[in-house]
Amino acid sequence: MISHCFVRLIMQHYKDLHVSRVLTRRSIGTLGDFPLPETLTNSIDELIAHSDIIVECTGDVFFGTEVIERAFEAGLPVVTVNAELQVTTGSYLAGKGLLTEAEGDQPGSLAALREEALQMGFQPLVYGNMKGYLNHDPSREEMAYWSKRQGISIEQTTSFTDGTKVQIEQVVVGNGFGATITRRGLEGLASTDLNRSGNILGLIADGIGQPIVDYVLPSGYPAGGVFLVCRHDQEQAPAIEYFKLGPGPYYVLTRPFHLCSLEVGKTVRRVLAGGGVLLNNSTEPTLGVAAIAKRDMRAGDMISRGIGGFDVRGEAVRLADELDHVPIGLLRNTVLKRAVEQGQLITFDDIEIQPSRALDLVFQQRQKVMERGQLRSQPDGIVQQVQEQ
Question: Which end of the chain is more exposed for a tag (fewer CB within 10 A), N or C?
Answer without folding.
Answer: C
